[in-house]
Amino acid sequence: MEKTVSEAIAYRRSTRVYKDEVIDTNKVKQCLVNASLAPTSSNLQLWEFYHITNKDVLEKVAKACFNQSAAKTAQQLVVVVTRKDLWRQRAKANVTFLNKVYDKENLTEREAKRKKMATNYYKKIIPTVYADFFGVLGIIKYIVFQIIGFFKPIYRQVRQSDMRIVAHKSAGLAAQNFMTSMAAIGYDTCPMEGSDTLRVKRILNLPRGAEINMIIGCGIRDEKGIYGPRFRVPFEDVYFEV
Prior knowledge:
Layout: H1 5-11, H2 25-35, E1 47-52, H3 55-64, H4 69-72, E2 76-82, H5 87-101, H6 109-130, H7 136-148, H8 160-184, E3 188-192, H9 197-204, E4 211-219
């Protein structure tokens, strides 16, 4: 029986050794569908998911992950990739969706206002924030926005490095959706940052604008794959009610 959200979160552990036991590719794919439903900044969905099941590719990526056990013993791998470079296409896709949703006669005043506001957001605000030229525009925007910020609240994360962080945050949310979904069906995962990301990009034939967010090992945990009991600092040390 599938676990509840709380049960799945409690069950999930970073599994570093997997059993030599096949897992269902379609079930893993469905967990990636769940990943794609994660919240994402401005609904731009600047992510891609590479689901690796081919044995040869698995071996190559595991080698690029320094042959760590979480990669070498994984039955499948998922590479979460950020695509900040696709912001124009994803903004356009949102506008197309809005036009389809509001493609009817006699829109209510509220609907017309919503359509105009959202469309302007993707056609004007998003280009203002994301457009850049070798980082120069980002610095200029950053300085201008900081000056405006003296007088009123304003969005300040407009540099190229800031937008990279935004894309990676959204990708991280998607990855967590995926790992929780896997835990819910009794499958195990391990998010890995230790890899030669350039080699991984070459193996997957990714374009220059793509960036590796994390690589996730997938399988069924071996009892020695969980390295000890879970440790967390006391909740009282990280929880602040304001």
